[in-house]
Specification:
about 220 residues; alpha/beta; 4-stranded parallel β-sheet; 7 helices
């Protein structure tokens, strides 16, 4: 993969230890450019991944960490957790560089191209992803599925374990997409809301009729 000269991506990273495979935005080798990772000690899976927005004090810490990244001359700011999509507007208003808090920023485009009944969203935990995270672009016809019933990936992330069986994790993701398609038979596109699902995009894209969108 050819490197993009003089382009810097800043990543607001949760304080996690679990393995981030190539393709995950938290893995510097995932992008063909310089990646600057700012790990935010106060931001963890248990206080970011939830049905409500992170507490105001934590949001302020994240915004200030973004200030530090912008001061380092980044050209794009992203986050390592799609559940921070609820901060998209606050982040975008604060910085002069473009901001992508989550792959859910694609929803306006996808809602224009596809009908809501043709869109599926795969997340880390479908019990916690709510209308709040869609920033006004949610529709009851959009089907949300999660990996919470799998045997490997959800456990490793939620418990912040340091080892991951990539094969078992892939099976979890494939199982979750299959369950999503059974619930949403007209699905033409699946959005991988969780950045930890991006490493499996290639495998999912091989499924007939499954256009895969991710950060």
């Amino acid at each position: 993969m050819a490197e993009v000269d003089n382009f810097k991506v800043g990543v607001l990273m949760l304080n996690t230890r679990f393995p981030r495979l190539p393709g995950d935005i938290g893995n510097p080798d995932s992008l063909p450019c310089e990646v600057i990772i700012r790990r935010v000690d106060a931001a963890r899976v248990d206080n970011v991944v939830g049905s409500e927005a992170p507490e105001a004090t934590l949001q302020q810490v994240l915004l200030e960490a973004g200030d530090e990244l912008q001061a380092q001359g980044i050209d794009l700011l992203v986050t390592s957790c799609g559940f921070l999509s609820c901060m998209q507007d606050a982040l975008a208003a604060r910085y002069w560089v473009p901001v992508i808090a989550s792959s859910l920023v694609l929803m306006p485009f996808l809602r224009t191209v596809y009908g809501p009944a043709e869109i599926g969203v795969l997340t880390f935990d479908s019990r916690k992803l709510t209308e709040l995270h869609f920033n006004g672009w949610f529709d009851d016809q959009i089907c949300i599925g999660g990996i919470e019933h799998g045997k490997e990936l959800h456990r490793v992330i939620s418990q912040d374990e340091t080892e991951l069986d990539a094969g078992l994790a892939e099976q979890d993701v494939l199982m979750a997409v299959d369950a999503l398609r059974q619930r949403q038979p007209d699905m033409k596109v699946v959005v991988l809301e969780c950045t930890n699902l991006s490493p499996y995009r290639g495998r999912l894209s091989g499924i007939p009729g499954c256009l895969c969108m991710t950060l």
